[in-house]
Each structure stands twice: as structure tokens, then as C-alpha cells.
Amino acid sequence: EVVAIGEIGLDFFRHLSPRPAQYGALTAQLELADRVGLPVVFHVRDAWTEILDHLDAVGPPRAGGVLHAFSSDAATVDWAREHGFLLGIGGPVTYKKSQLPELVVRAGVQLLLLETDAPWLPPVPHRGQRNESALMAHTLDKVAALLELPAAVVARETTRSFARLFGPFAGTEPDPGADPNGS
């Protein structure tokens, strides 16, 4: 079952695809997402300003989505909140020089989705190694510490956010009346 369109977006890091071609593909993919009523998973690299400008011009997808491997700034956190997007938070939140910790706190648990981006971006203490799903606990623990919440609450709330966006799967039924602080 198809539950999202993605990864789609803009990647200006390696210059492997001309920018006009990337914008054309992105626009077509956004139109597809709206036509079929599915959320999107955005891949953005060295193009945060450009993608937000483009989305403001053409309109963000109506079904929302995820800013995968989030690495932008406070203004983008606010944009995500305003437009119903989740922030994909992975291993880089554990890195010493990362700006993600302050952005995670700004976002709050309801705006977060935990992810691995395996085999890339492993969390500390596995930086420099191949990432895998089993290492997600390090990311979860870091996010829980930043938000001053029990890890179980962060796991539950990010799973519920996943289910709200992509639809319920086994064990991910959203509970809209739940208290995110676990009380």
C-alpha cells in the first residue's frame, strides 16, 4: 500500500541534476501528491530557503508530510508547525556541534518523527559507522533528554504522529485524546 510520495525535494549539494529539472520534478510530484491525497517525504540538501520559497509559491501539499533528515533553522520549524509538517530527527541530534537540540526543544514532541536515514547519519556513539534501525534508541534517548520527557512518552507520541500522517499500522493507532506528557 502506498502511504506517501517521496523522497522528493531539492538537493543542491552535489550538482548532479540541473536546478530547473529539480524544480520541474518537484512541482510534478507535489501535484501528484495532491491529486492522490497523500503526504510527502521531503529530501532537502543545501536548499532549505529555496524549497520553502517554492512551497510558498505553489502551495504546500494538502496532506502534509515530513521534512526528512531535518537540518534547517528555527524559521523552518515554525513553517513546519504552521503547515502541518513533521520534522524527521535522526542521528545528527546527538552530534556535539549540532544545532538540532535547540530546534527539537522549539518544536516539541508533537512535531517530531524519529528516523534513521540508514545507512547514513548514525548517532553518537556510532558516528562513522554504518547506521541501522537498532541504533534508534540513542536518538530516542537524546530527544527524550532534550524534551525532559520519559523515552517511552517520546516513543509513543512520535509513533502516534507517524500514524496520524501515514495511517495506522499494527501498533501505531493514534490516540487523539492522549496527554503528550503521559499524565
* SSE arrangement, N to C: EHEHEHEHEHH
Instruction: Profile the largest sheet.
Output: 5 strands, parallel
Strand order of the largest sheet: 1-2-3-4-5
Low-confidence runs of at least 5 consecutive residues: none
**Class computed from helices, strands and strand pairing:** alpha/beta
Q: Provide the CATH topology of the largest domain.
A: TIM Barrel
Integer average pLDDT = 94
* CATH level-1 class of the largest domain: Alpha Beta
Q: Beta-sheet strand percentage? A: 5-15%
User: Based on the structure given, which CATH architecture of the largest domain is correct?
Assistant: Alpha-Beta Barrel
The helix tally amounts to 6
CATH homologous superfamily placement of the largest domain: Metal-dependent hydrolases
Give the proportion of residues in helices. 40-55%
Cα distance spanning the termini:
35 Å
The total domain count is 2
Count of strand segments: 5
Radius of gyration: 16 Å
